[in-house]
Fold this sequence. Notes:
The complex is a heterodimer.
Chain A: E1 2-7, E2 26-32, E3 38-45, H1 55-66, E4 70-73, H2 78-86, E5 90-93, H3 100-108
Chain B: E1 18-22, H1 30-43, E2 48-52, H2 60-63, E3 69-76, E4 79-81, H3 91-95, E5 101-102, E6 110-111, H4 121-125, E7 131-133, E8 136-146, E9 149-156, H5 164-179, E10 187-191, H6 198-204, E11 209-214, H7 218-234, E12 239-244, H8 252-261, E13 264-269, H9 273-281, H10 285-288, H11 293-313
Parallel strand pairs in B: 1-10, 1-11, 2-9, 2-10, 11-12, 12-13
Antiparallel strand pairs in B: 3-8, 4-7, 5-6, 8-9
Amino acid sequence: MKIGIASSLPEGLDSPVDERFGRCFMWTVVEVGNNKKVTNVELYENEARNARSGAGIQSTQFLAKLGCTVAIAGQFGPRAFTALNSLGFEIIQCDPQLSVREVVENYLSSEYKPLEEPTVSKKAGISK
Amino acid sequence: MTTLPSEIFHLKPIDTPIVACTGGKGGTGKTVVAINLATQLANMGKKVLIIDCDVDSPNVAILLGAELKDKQTVKRFLPEFILENCTFCGKCAEYCRAHAILQVGDKPPILFPEICTGCEVCQLVCPSDAIIDKEKIAGYTYEGRNNGVDIVSGELKLREPESAVAVVAARERAFKKITENGKDYDIVVVDTAPGAHCDVIRALLGADLVLAVTEPTPFGAHDLDLIIELTKNVMKLDSKVVLNRSDIADSQIIELMCEKKSVEMLARIPYDDELIQSYVKGIPLVNYNPESASGKILIQLTEKTQELLLKSTTPP
């Protein structure tokens, strides 16, 4: 299983989670094995960060191509939500104060309920 | 980076001289200058067509006191996917600059129509003819007439992301009137939107003379710098400055800008209550009170404009 986590620093598991999904600074992609152990961590720049429109859609496309099935961020806009949902992603909202490591641990111990609707309005990530 | 040859900005499908009113900053009086120019040219016996290319807030007809009729729709491209042709190659999503298409794996593409700009690139890059044009109404064009001036006006539908499509449609309708209906006009006046973006560039294409209307404020000077850079230096169009509300502040800021950009200031229109009154009543000042301080300047400006157009469109 691959999890795409919006991250605000290029520090892997120690990076804080980014509040924004589509316009996060970095992607930390965490691969988890059958024994619920982290087997691989990869960092990617988020090329959609400064997109004029459709950052959430482009981010979804990016994570899906990497094979992610779970997306984690502080907030999700309506188009990001629709895009992720249409591809069958598990959409997880978390406290952006936490680190990627803590969020992955919480997710693996089933502490989060997948989101059923977007958390912010369109373009909410632009001004942040 | 390759530089575009400026000739592409000079092409026009008609021989009629075109004067365009623009200015960069909003609210400087572009439309007031345009409609007074058009009306005074008509008063001088010219057959005048004005094109309202400020399609986000078209006001020419209001200021001319004219009623707009003959509404026509402006259509633009909206992709529709033909799934039996789709090979799920993902090119449409990859090339979409607005990121309005999502396509992953063997799943069909998903369109987010509200952010699609209608640029057609998805159809262009699709290798399997899987994208057709569903068409979408992007705006409207109209015609009207008052004060001896014929009007063609463009209007963009609210929330449409690209204004240029309605500008192009308004110009096409106006030029068609000239080329197909055999309507003979002496002069075409174009009123542009504020700014220096694609919609303004489209509106300015082929202009024989550009009047950049500004005001004596730092904001006015800043935007004048940008619009003159576009019209004179990039598009290589004959560009002049019109200073509106010339006496509300020290006009030196604009004089210095004219010097910096090597452009001539063609007129100074003083602040005038009569102009405000004409504006409120929807009667061009050159008809409402031609003897007023700013009315006289607008009449002089019209004469100068006519001379300049005659010079630029008569072969030596």
